[in-house]
Amino acid sequence: MQNKIPCFSSLVIFLLLFSATQVNAAIYKCPGKNGESAYQEKPCKKGQEVVDRALKPSLEQQARSHLRNAKMYLKLADVYEKEGRQRKENKRISAENERKCQKAKDDLQYWETQSRHNYTFVERNYDLERVEQAKQKARKACSDLSIK
Fold first, then answer.
1. Tens of pLDDT, residues 56-84
2. In this structure, are residues 128 and 115 in contact, taking their beta carbons and an 8 Å threshold?
3. In this structure, how many other beta carbons lie within 10 angstroms of the beta carbon of residue 105?
4. Are 27 and 44 in contact (CB under 8 A)?
5. Which of 8, 31, 130, 142 could be 101's S-S partner, Cβ–Cβ 3.0 to 4.6 Å?
């Protein structure tokens, strides 16, 4: 039974784990000799405690800080609102461009079909011109969407 911890060792470990006491000692920063600060366990005489301004800002400093934060949040809200409006406008423009592209493709398909059904030379030439115009219009309308 070499692998088992002896009873005495487990008792010592138990006592070490649960015998630690919590230390609650308050430390006070008081004015000392020659204008230096002194740290002590006892409270300073009334009205003599040194307040570290970096740790405890005045009410005015706190109010200014809150005001700066509020202004910053308002600016952020404006930025988010503008971005939202811009996204909505971009989405609208994109949908409009897609509609124009689809209409141009439909027109192109119509004139290509129309040109196949004409039997006279004049009508066929007119329809072929219309097909070329429709192709150019479709290329122009669909170029923004990178659809050819």
1. 667 888 888 889 999 999 999 999 999 99
2. yes
3. 17
4. no
5. 142
